[in-house]
């Protein structure tokens, strides 16, 4: 039962996840995450699915490199039965640019291309590279069986009319400036899982997926393939997010620079780390903060209303792009799965399309998966994502 296991690394900017998975049976044997990297309350948590045992280790200010080495030396190598059955190490990479368009075995050329794409994902790609370097160091026998799985790959089926910007074409042709999207691995899983739920072939599946977390995006998927997505060249475009502004008038940047004399570095920091929910509430980027205070705090009301207004505009537009029977609207991600008021405010705008939420189901489904629509209306599905499973499957498929 332990044949052909995948070790998966999902290294983020402030956290990382890891897992050992049998991608043929979808079974997880080990899973864990490291939270609050480089902070005093950083911690490593993992779960042994065979022994059904939870573990936690607090290590102050732990870095990506030290966290990965702790996992290798204190968790993986102490479970020799699993460790020796690992056949591939698969890494999530946020941005592959215009050269890395599908999952690939990692070599020096691939590493250099991931580095060059860091300009589009400066918080994420460098963290992914640490995962690659430490994996090769700790597991030299699999140095040629490390696989890169890209968030941007799933979005490569978008037509030019979706991914091109209204700027001089040579900027796309010479420098690859286009919409790349993000959360692609999550979307790939949702398509995989939703097709099973509806017992429908993936190439017949038409869904709108809202991946809502600290970073938030939405995608329109027709016949199992992406036709448009809200994030762009970088994960900054699109919906309102925890600390990111999402869509803005580009003249705001000129105004901040020319009239308020704010430096470009500070403008970048303002739009990516001080805006979104945090900017509107002036208190918190945590979505639970605004849901909890929605009926009594004016800034929480504004923040949630702006978020839902933008999300509903995208949903409405993406319904028209599918232009045929819609199988479902799917909510995933921490906010998508748990924010009941957000779902109600957003979906209430779509009764014209026979998309009607069941208030009782919506309220009772927090933290679980299932349907929240009224009977005989278009399905609204809450579905937790599993990026690690898709990464594991991509990895094992490449080394077959």
UniProtKB/TrEMBL annotation:
<dbReference type="GO" id="GO:0006085">
    <property type="term" value="P:acetyl-CoA biosynthetic process"/>
</dbReference>
<keyword id="KW-0460">Magnesium</keyword>
<dbReference type="InterPro" id="IPR043129">
    <property type="entry name" value="ATPase_NBD"/>
</dbReference>
<dbReference type="InterPro" id="IPR000890">
    <property type="entry name" value="Aliphatic_acid_kin_short-chain"/>
</dbReference>
<feature type="binding site">
    <location>
        <begin position="286"/>
        <end position="288"/>
    </location>
    <ligand>
        <name>ATP</name>
    </ligand>
</feature>
<keyword id="KW-0547">Nucleotide-binding</keyword>
<comment type="pathway">
    <text>Metabolic intermediate biosynthesis; acetyl-CoA biosynthesis; acetyl-CoA from acetate: step 1/2.</text>
</comment>
<protein>
    <recommendedName>
        <fullName>Acetate kinase</fullName>
        <ecNumber>2.7.2.1</ecNumber>
    </recommendedName>
</protein>
<feature type="binding site">
    <location>
        <begin position="334"/>
        <end position="338"/>
    </location>
    <ligand>
        <name>ATP</name>
    </ligand>
</feature>
<comment type="similarity">
    <text>Belongs to the acetokinase family.</text>
</comment>
<feature type="site" description="Transition state stabilizer">
    <location>
        <position position="183"/>
    </location>
</feature>
<dbReference type="GO" id="GO:0006083">
    <property type="term" value="P:acetate metabolic process"/>
</dbReference>
<feature type="binding site">
    <location>
        <position position="387"/>
    </location>
    <ligand>
        <name>Mg(2+)</name>
    </ligand>
</feature>
<keyword id="KW-0418">Kinase</keyword>
<dbReference type="GO" id="GO:0000287">
    <property type="term" value="F:magnesium ion binding"/>
</dbReference>
<keyword id="KW-0808">Transferase</keyword>
<feature type="site" description="Transition state stabilizer">
    <location>
        <position position="244"/>
    </location>
</feature>
<dbReference type="GO" id="GO:0008776">
    <property type="term" value="F:acetate kinase activity"/>
</dbReference>
<comment type="subunit">
    <text>Homodimer.</text>
</comment>
<dbReference type="GO" id="GO:0005829">
    <property type="term" value="C:cytosol"/>
</dbReference>
<keyword id="KW-0067">ATP-binding</keyword>
<dbReference type="GO" id="GO:0005524">
    <property type="term" value="F:ATP binding"/>
</dbReference>
<feature type="binding site">
    <location>
        <position position="10"/>
    </location>
    <ligand>
        <name>Mg(2+)</name>
    </ligand>
</feature>
<feature type="active site" description="Proton donor/acceptor">
    <location>
        <position position="151"/>
    </location>
</feature>
<feature type="binding site">
    <location>
        <position position="17"/>
    </location>
    <ligand>
        <name>ATP</name>
    </ligand>
</feature>
<comment type="function">
    <text>Catalyzes the formation of acetyl phosphate from acetate and ATP. Can also catalyze the reverse reaction.</text>
</comment>
<dbReference type="InterPro" id="IPR004372">
    <property type="entry name" value="Ac/propionate_kinase"/>
</dbReference>
<feature type="binding site">
    <location>
        <position position="92"/>
    </location>
    <ligand>
        <name>substrate</name>
    </ligand>
</feature>
<feature type="binding site">
    <location>
        <begin position="211"/>
        <end position="215"/>
    </location>
    <ligand>
        <name>ATP</name>
    </ligand>
</feature>
<keyword id="KW-0479">Metal-binding</keyword>
<dbReference type="Pfam" id="PF00871">
    <property type="entry name" value="Acetate_kinase"/>
</dbReference>
<keyword id="KW-0963">Cytoplasm</keyword>
């Amino acid at each position: 039962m332990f044949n052909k296991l995948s070790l998966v690394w999902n290294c983020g900017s402030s956290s990382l996840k890891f897992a050992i998975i049998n991608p043929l049976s979808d079974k997880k044997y080990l899973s864990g995450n490291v939270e609050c990297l480089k902070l005093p309350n950083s911690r490593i948590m993992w779960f042994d699915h065979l022994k059904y045992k939870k573990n936690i280790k607090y290590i102050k200010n732990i870095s990506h490199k030290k966290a990965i080495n702790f996992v290798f030396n204190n968790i993986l190598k102490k479970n020799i039965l699993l460790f020796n059955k690992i056949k591939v190490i698969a890494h999530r990479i946020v941005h592959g640019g215009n050269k890395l368009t599908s999952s690939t075995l990692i070599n020096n050329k691939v590493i250099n291309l991931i580095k060059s794409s860091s300009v589009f994902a400066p918080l994420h790609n460098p963290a992914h590279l640490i995962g690659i370097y430490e994996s090769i160091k700790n597991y030299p026998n699999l140095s040629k069986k490390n696989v890169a799985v890209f968030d941007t790959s799933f979005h490569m089926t978008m037509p030019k009319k979706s991914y091109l910007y209204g700027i001089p074409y040579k900027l796309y042709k010479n420098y690859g400036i286009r919409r790349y999207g993000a959360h692609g691995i999550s979307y790939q899983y949702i398509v995989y899982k939703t097709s099973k739920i509806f017992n429908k072939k993936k190439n017949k599946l038409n869904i709108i997926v809202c991946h809502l977390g600290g970073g938030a995006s939405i995608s329109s998927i027709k016949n199992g393939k992406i036709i448009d997505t809200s994030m762009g060249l970088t994960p900054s475009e699109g919906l309102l997010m925890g600390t990111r502004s999402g869509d803005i008038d580009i003249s705001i940047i000129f105004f901040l620079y020319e009239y308020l004399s704010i430096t470009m570095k500070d403008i970048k920091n303002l739009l990516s780390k001080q805006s979104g929910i945090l900017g509107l509430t002036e208190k918190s980027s945590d979505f639970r903060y605004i849901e909890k205070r929605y009926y009594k705090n004016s800034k929480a009301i504004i923040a949630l209303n702006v978020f839902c207004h933008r999300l509903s505009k995208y949903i409405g537009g993406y319904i028209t792009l599918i232009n045929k029977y819609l199988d479902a609207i799917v909510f995933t991600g921490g906010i998508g799965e748990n924010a009941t008021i957000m779902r109600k405010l957003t979906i209430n705008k779509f009764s014209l399309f026979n998309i009607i939420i069941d208030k009782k189901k919506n309220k009772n489904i927090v933290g679980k998966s299932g349907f929240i629509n009224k009977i005989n209306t278009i399905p609204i599905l809450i579905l937790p994502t599993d990026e690690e499973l898709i990464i594991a499957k991509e990895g094992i498929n490449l080394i077959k």
